[in-house]
Amino acid sequence: MVVKEGNLEAPTRHPLDWKNPDFYSEESLFKELERVFDLCHGCRRCVSLCNSFPTLFDLVDESSTMEVDGVDKKDFWQVVDHCYLCDLCYMTKCPYTPPHEWNLDFPHLMLRAKAVNFKQGNTRLRDKILTSTDAVGSLAGIPVIAGIVNAANKAKPTRKMLASVLGVHPDARLPEYHSKTLRSRLSNRVGKHAEGEAAGGTSGKVALFATCYGNRNEPIIGEDLVAVFEHNGITVTMAEKEQCCGMPKLELGDLESVEKAKNANIPVLARLVDAGWDIVAPVPSCALMFKQELPLIFPDDADVKKVGAAIFDPFEYLMLRHKAGKLNTDFKQPLGKIAYHAACHQRVQNVGSKTRELLSLIPDTTVDAIERCSGHDGTYAVKQEFHATAMKIVRPVVGRVKKAKADHYGSDCPMAGHHIEHGMDDGSVTEHPMSLLRKAYGI
User: Fold this and answer.
1) Which end of the chain is more exposed for a tag (fewer CB within 10 A), N or C?
2) Would you say the pTM of this structure is higher than 0.90?
């Protein structure tokens, strides 16, 4: 058999065989970890992506053999802990992904390891709480409590307590909570029916999947999206109910909770698709969950496939309509220079840089695109043991923003945008690209 140096074809993804008992075999897992780590050690192409790879290579270089066989297997967990499933190594760097015969899927191997760890009961209470976004948001979003929580999250005594009790770093930025959720602000749209003008493979009518973050932490993004879409003649409705897409639990390795989220969301969204609606999610991680992860975890579920084919990134949707001549390009306000961070979970959707393309249509506006991970990941950057590393990862992004001397900066991932803002530490404020687009329209 001739072994090719690298892939000459687009990477393909195998379904996640998580119902197979062998999936949770620690012996089988460590055998595969050693095989893949040895291949990664021989390549080292991904060293600049996240801290998993430097951690692995340091372990190898400091071992007695300077090979993977010299690394204590219990230290393999250090590599797993630093992976936050951004998928960039698989989609942009690795030359040995399927259909290459080495069949290397680093993110899904890390997911398997996290699932084994979770199954064995080794997951910290802190991590279970941080990933229970609906439960935490429901409590923290109660009108009186929201103000107390937001104030407490900025108070040093409270943060010291969170650090000692839960392991939340005292300097990490925590999201604010809004008692008036996006769903309450757009309640008049639930069940809304209207016709849309089809164009460019879109129906012209979309159901907004608010996302747990967009619903309780930053509802303005959803409001801006509705304003921009309606300005472009696109009808917007909301599903009658939704819960977290499951991405936080996926990153924890809690696949049974992912299945519960799927069972709650997919039937509702599938009915909307059957009624002719497209689905749009304003947070890239949520769109990716429905587009890629759920179809790989539940490959035989027809409704999962249906929803996955009908969900769009907002800027992907607008640019599809632009190519069909259906985008309103009557912009009222130039934006000058924008330092735009391309979110990892948007990049790996394989739709191209649609946000940059659309913002570049605005007259007297230039976009400096930064394609590098911010290191936030939703929970990674707030954890006591990883915050310093997350700040190190974001440093080059912050450097690019400062060097650009831009009028605006931000990311499609609002959490990444705020992490960059935290790194800037100069009083400047991140602005979501959808908010910038609304500003350019003057609406």
Assistant:
1) N
2) yes
